[in-house]
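Table 4 source record.
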Amino acid sequence: MDPRIVAVRTLLPDHAYTAREAMDAYDRWVSGRPRPFREKARRIFEAAAIDEKHTVAPADVIFSRRTLEETNRLYSEKAVELGGRLLAGTLEQAGWAPADLDLLVTTSCTGHMIPSLDAHLVNRLGLRSDIRRMPITHIGCAGGAAGMIYALDFLRAYPGRRAALLSVEFPSNTIQLDDFSWDNIIGTAIFGDGLGCVLMGDGPSSAPLIRDAEMRQVPDSTDILGYRLTGTGFLMNLDRSVPQVIEDHFDAIVGPFLRRNGTDIESLARVLVHPGGVKILDKLEAILAPRGQRLDLSRAVMKRHGNMSSGTIHFILEAYLRAPVRPGRALVMSYGPGFTAHQLLLEWE
């Protein structure tokens, strides 16, 4: 039998800033730039239209000059603290004990740890010493969906086991103060911090089954999205062609996957997509609206908290599960560096 999504839970860091407070911080950051630059940067920040941003540290720390060692130390400490809190809370929500877990998948692209985050959580939460651990660090925004796919493969190979996926992302901690490229400006405008957790395995009939999953990479597109590691940290690479690449390849990626499962977009109960930004949402809605699908939940999460990288898909899925879900199938999808599309087909009986 296909495994189920037993629980979904999210967590936001404690430091929160309204759109006005965030704008003030951005204005101070670019205050020394020429007026035309400042005006364009302000338009980008306003277009992001994010109601509230959560950050892993106060704004005066985020917008201070720190070494790569200092930023990564903050990342490591908070990843263990907040990640441990979220995983423990999700296990409690499902009624699972820490020793019940057979696989722990962790995803993150905004920091670096060796030993990886999952190793620290084994000790912190009292997980079994023989638990399978799978840290994923280089799939970016698609990491949340990718982690669910890896857990699905494990659960199909070992029926009756239980898996957890934990996504921990602190994009605010990667801001490059002395880089005023538009990639860095846009990245600073659209990203926020957040964590998500999913438990998978046997569960009640009300929990969705994971019927199928697939990863697809667009050929010759590795240079359009990602991070470059510099002497001061992670520098965003966000090519303006990303929305068009998604539009050009959408049907070729999604169509065969759905047909393989005997369905199509029009027949789905919902499409849940983490695309990355407002422009990509607009592109996708132009494709989906004529087929009877809306991305209102994706848009609402983006507007409320911004792009939280691999954690975002968990916020979207959690929002969907909070409401009464009608029987049927839902497509869960995330895009990320590669350039890749990761998709899962869920079904409520």
